[in-house]
Amino acid sequence: MSDDDTNVYSETRQRRIKIVAWVVIVSLILVGGGATVLALLFG
């Protein structure tokens, strides 16, 4: 495996990690916000 292959692989991997991280953050905010709204409505 050459350095170029490793470089391309790590760039793709880092982009995927960033996307996954953002999705997790957004979903946590949405779920947390939804739970807060439900707690206020039905609490």
From TrEMBL:
Keywords linked to the UniProt accession: Membrane, Transmembrane, Transmembrane helix
Membrane-spanning residues: 19-42
Protein name in the entry: DUF4044 domain-containing protein
Lineage: Bacteria, Bacillati, Actinomycetota, Actinomycetes, Micrococcales
